[in-house]
Amino acid sequence: MNITSEHWLDTAKRDELPGGSAMNVRRFLVIHFTSGASGQSSVDFWRTPQAKGACAHLVIDRDGSVIQCRPFNRTCGHAGQSAWRGYTGLNSCSIGIELANAGDNDALFKKWAQSTIKAKHKNGGPLQEWEAYPAAQFQVCLEVAKALVARYKLDDVIGHDDIAPDRKNDPGPAFPMQRLREACGFKGMPVR
Length: 192
Known about the structure:
Number of helices: 5
Largest sheet: 6 strands, mixed
Shape: globular
Structural class: alpha/beta
Helix content: 10-25%
Order of helices and strands: EEHEEEEEHEEHEHH
Strand content: 15-25%
Radius of gyration: 15 Å
Distance between the termini: 31 Å
Oligomer: single chain
Strand order of the largest sheet: 1-4-3-7-2-10
Number of strands: 10
Mean pLDDT: 96
């Protein structure tokens, strides 16, 4: 798995969404869940006016297939109002990976989830069911994350729930964030 000189993942299917601004410096990798059905359904939604400009660089489907929507040197609308380690508005300096996953939406996970876990979110809330991340999906996420951290010398790997804890709960407690971070050379869980 390599990143080309044009900032595309060589193994990803390209489904390009035009737009974004130049992103000359990349600091962070932000992990999300789609709260949706398939990876392609999320990309299709991003093409609609209802998405209001939301999108991410990559979507990894449950089977581990990858769709890249924008090169890594262009911004995407994945972080929204966000802050991390002195930076605000992280769309300007972060790469976003969306994982096809229903999160805590029981209508969606009853239809799409291969399995679920019961857990409380680290930012609070009740004990509830969350869609588990399939092994194939997580393995590809790990390989992509390692490639991105190495290529762009990223400062941190974090979740949307870290950079916008008052409004976002993804990737949630089912995602093995510590395992991903440690594979990328970071210690423990994200700390502000």
